[in-house]
Design goal:
Layout lengths: L10 H4 L12 H9 L8 E5 L5 E5 L8 E7 L13 H11 L2 E6 L10 H14 L4 E11 L1 H16 L7 E4 L22 H12 L4 H4 L13 E8 L3 H13 L4 E10 L2 H4 L4 H20 L2
Parallel strand pairs: 3-4, 3-5, 5-6, 6-7, 7-8
Antiparallel strand pairs: 1-2, 2-4
């Protein structure tokens, strides 16, 4: 992939960003870096779901009555990361949309393989839908990378159990398919996440799980899922699998909006949030959420 195919505003960063961050040996190091991030600050409540995961709660200012809410799930290949990593994004979503945002610290693999992390996300979703000040009929779910994969899995679980019915699923370059590990898929434009990282993440997460049930892209029963927004860069390892999943959702009768970020690699919006391609990406996500939360109630 020639350098000129990377978005002009991302080229300088692309020169210094690695193509792979997650190795088996790097998991403890990356976790320590995540722990050093600030755990609190003005406008965020730190709490825990009874017998469940820790949460970070962001409430909009000067809003009366019950408001919509978004459960946000952080990325990290199912093996690293924390809710605090997306503090700036959650604040932005709360401010732009005027909604409650709850970010969940789910259990990580390989110590806690499937379905531990998903169970934590489901507990967080049930808790959020019952939270005073939240409209239970206008709760959305979303996440980035592995968090997007968990959000996709959570959409299935919520549909099948019928306790909470999310109005939307927002999947930002979601990690959906454990079969995306073939080195022939590599591209010189990829950054941060490649097929080797993908193999590590999925192997740690799945353990001996039934992949037909644990991997969103392997599910064959997509009907009845909530409307979806799927965003991904054209230089992301997940580009092909994400577009295929979007097509399958549409074929199953699920409303699905796709946003492709030209010349963008994995996680581009997190490392270059002020770039126009990142701002457009966030605006598209927010517009989709706003429509979904407005159409209900």
């Amino acid at each position: 992939m020639p350098a000129e195919d990377i978005h002009p505003e991302l080229r300088r960063l692309a020169r210094v960003l690695p193509r792979q961050l997650v190795y088996r040996w790097s998991i403890p190091v990356l976790r320590k870096l995540s722990i050093r991030r600030p755990n609190n600050g003005a406008g965020v409540e730190l709490l825990a779901v009874p017998s469940g995961p820790r949460m970070r709660l962001y409430r909009p200012a000067r809003v009366a009555g019950d408001v919509p809410a978004l459960l946000w799930i952080h990325g990290g290949g199912y093996v690293v990361g924390s809710a605090a990593d997306d503090d700036d994004l959650c604040r932005a979503l709360t401010r732009k949309l005027g909604v409650v945002v709850a970010a969940v610290d789910y259990r990580l693999a390989p110590e806690h393989p499937y379905p531990a992390g998903l169970a934590d996300c489901y507990s967080a979703l049930r808790w959020l839908a019952r939270l005073p000040g939240v409209d239970p009929g206008r709760v959305a779910i979303g996440g980035a990378s592995a968090g997007g994969g968990l959000a996709a899995s959570l959409a299935f679980l919520a549909r099948d159990r019928g306790e909470v019915r999310p109005v939307a699923q927002v999947l930002s370059y979601p990690m959906l398919d454990d079969r995306t590990v073939d080195v022939s898929l590599e591209d010189k434009g990829f950054r941060v996440w490649n097929t080797a990282s993908n193999r590590v993440g999925w192997t740690c997460y799945l353990g001996d799980a039934d992949r037909a049930a644990a991997v969103p892209a392997r599910r064959d029963d997509l009907a009845g899922l909530p409307p979806a927004w799927i965003g991904v860069g054209t230089l992301d390892l997940f580009h092909t699998e994400d577009l295929l999943y979007a097509r399958r959702l549409s074929d199953a009768g699920v409303l699905c909006e796709v946003h492709e970020a030209p010349g963008a690699f994995h996680g581009f919006d997190r490392v270059a949030p002020k770039a126009s391609v990142s701002r457009t990406y966030l605006d598209s996500m927010c517009a989709s959420l706003r429509r979904a939360m407005t159409m209900v109630g």
